[in-house]
Amino acid sequence: MVEETVAVVMVAEIEIEGKSSVSKNYTINTCLLGYNIPSIFKGNFMKKILLTLLLALSTFLQASDDAPSFSLTTIDDKNITINQLNFSETETGLEFKEFKGKAVLLALWGHRCPPCLKEIPEFISLTKKHKDDLEIVAIEAQGYPADKVKEFVTNHQMNYNVVAGADYNNFINYIASMAGYSRGIPLPLLIGINKKGEVEHLQAGLIREDELEMLVKELND
Questions:
Q1: Structural domain boundaries, residue 130
Q2: Taking the model in full, what pTM does it have?
């Protein structure tokens, strides 16, 4: 049985155009590894947050002298090799060796996360529509055992690449550091990588199918 999302009210002080502003009564349709985290900032608020996270991601990647590499195995035994790319001193990205020439949506999700469950039909639909230009790699990040993840995938008819994250905490921690999260990961978390390996999008929280369609188009341009 799916746990209910609890709305959390938060007062947050944010600096906008040189002035201190207080926002309140915002809630987020997001889970933090099994429980909810406070505050959603819409419109310009969210844009500022996403920009900050992308800058944090870029800084983290540039700070690494030895580009890391990871090898993941999906629940249906497909291998996925992920390498950090260094295009220049200021431009970095992620290479999915088996998916060269395709856009990639890297998603962290949880089996107890209601908004994550809402994304599943959207990802199924996207995979059917974009067989030739998109791969979705979804990593379960709430520690569900591999056999349970496999059963979950079968029950929900998930037709994309699913990885049991319980076996790959090192990669999950890497992604968390990339995105600037040091005290927990908001779920769902989506990273959009274009067909050249450049990271173009980072978003915490549920995203609508029409927005996903626009994102896939942008990643393939």
A1: 59-220
A2: 0.74
